[in-house]
Amino acid sequence: MPVIDPKFRRKLGQYIVQCALAFVFIAGLVAFFSAVAEAVIVAALGSSAFIVFAMPHRVTALPRRLVGGHLLCLGIGLACSVPLRWGWLAGDGLGFCVVAGASVSLAILGMVITNTEHPPAAGNALAFAVLEVGTLHVVVTVGAVMLMALVRRLLRGWLQDLV
């Protein structure tokens, strides 16, 4: 079994350009988001960037899944954060664990019943449930996901699955 994918040699330019697009997108996002960045939110968006730029024709890269999954999970995370934000549960220990587990499990359930499965979005459910996030986090996350969907749409005829 070869260590390096044989397609890499044949499509070197495609690999480099698509990875460079991911670099520009994430570097720009982090530069813009750095004042309010939470690593787990950026990690979820980075995972989405992998899907969009390395596997653009897979079902999880479809706009319904990309945008819908993130919007749904962001909402679930914010809803799950209420017990922590309003002091109904302690922000550490068991309450924190319950909110974290609920956010991810409800995100999974929500995505599978609405056909918006996008695995990285579950990370945003967790982030928005347990971190102190504000309106700017929501706006930047939604904007980043929408921008990724737009870039994928504009380049759909050119982008190739690299995996």
Walk me through the structure.
There is one protein chain. The chain has 163 residues and is mostly helical. It has one domain. Helix content is 72%, strand content 0%. The longest helix is centred in the middle third of the chain and has 23 residues, at 63-85. The radius of gyration is 17 Å and the shape is elongated.
Mean pLDDT: 88
Separation of termini?
A: 15 Å
Q: How many beta-strand runs? A: 0
Q: How many domains make up the 3D coordinates?
A: 1
Structural class comes to: mainly alpha
Radius of gyration: 17 Å
Helix content: over 70%
Strand content: under 5%
Largest sheet: none
Note the quaternary state here: single chain
Pick out the low-confidence regions: none
Could you say which overall geometry the principal axes of the C-alpha atoms support? elongated
The SSE order reads: HHHHHHH
The total of helices stands at 7
